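Student: Please help interpret what follows.
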Amino acid sequence: MLIVTTFDLDEYAQEGLRAGASGFLLKELKDARPEELVAGIHAVATGDAVVAPRPTRGLLDAYARQVLAPASTPAPEDP
């Protein structure tokens, strides 16, 4: 599944990828380049993943917060 949207929201990219999408592309209607869309379709069809550069920062930040965050120190047990 490839999500193509004009909405530049990190939450949309996160939810789409969580739902199983293999790609997320942003398309401004006035700047849409057909070759970018075709390249994204081919990438997903061949098993690769593609994410537009802009939401990549938000996805990496969310990943870092959820997965790479330091484990909290357990509270000391009462004797």
